Amino acid sequence: MENLYDLVIIGAGPAGLAAGLYGARAKMKTIIIEKDKTGGQIVTTEEVANYPGSVPNATGPSLIARMVEQCDEFGCERIKDDIVEVNFDEKIKVIKGTKGEYKAKAVIIATGATPRKLDVPGEKELTGKGVSYCATCDGDFFTDFEVFAIGGGDTAVEEAMFLTKFARKVTVVHRRDMLRAAKSIQEKAMKNPKIEFIYDTAVKEIKGDGILESIVFENLKTGEVWEHFADEEDGTMGLFVFVGYLPQTNLFKGKLDMNSHGYLITDDKMRTNVEGVFAAGDCRDKLLRQVVTATADGAIAAIGAEKYIEENFEH
What we know:
single chain; alpha/beta; FAD/NAD(P)-binding domain; seven-stranded mixed sheet; 22% helix; thioredoxin-disulfide reductase (NADPH) activity; FAD/NAD-bd_sf
């Protein structure tokens, strides 16, 4: 059968690359299909300090480069294609891309999730240079600096509390007149002397020459606009955006079980509700979305896929 693979992996972030490595090492005919750049969100990270065994000065791109090298070394194929349709109804799964069609005995979905952006001028240019979407990844870079946390839900307030371990001051900025976070979380945050709150306010623009230097805010009730500059001695500050994530799972709606936010539901073996289809990494409903959990998911999914193939296909 043309283009028949043991394992097709959709997505080349850390989860997909780990799955590719484990799949290829298990001597499965494995291919990773990625529509965008290899590496996912981690390639926008300047420094990777919380991945176990990270070498000093490791960057997101350098970590991904080593993962890619390992995949290639064991014979995992990689291709750039945009998947537009999937059919998981039969034993042989069919994945259609703009460049071709791929058939697979097993599929691992590792399409990831992207942080919801503010979509304001300067945000894209200063991401990784003062603007961040992950407190656990980047919080310690702002030790003794001033930090702003944007959002009003559980995550925003919890991450703001986490940031007080590093920053000298954390200001939570929310566009509504009250937080949406659970009362117990709010109470804890309000008792923290390092946290301040600004309501009815949104970020209008983020400015800086290669590094975050000022933030333009607007009061949504009064229309007042003001610019907050980084402390002169610091030269910069942190802007952490916590307004939700968008799992990249639209392609699988109606085909696989997902929660109300669009995250794929799996068991601890990374199995979805469809036999032979697994999910790994940030697109999956889980507690922690980090490189370390993504790579673990990918490895488990690949081993699960290998066992599934052994049990369901004749050699």
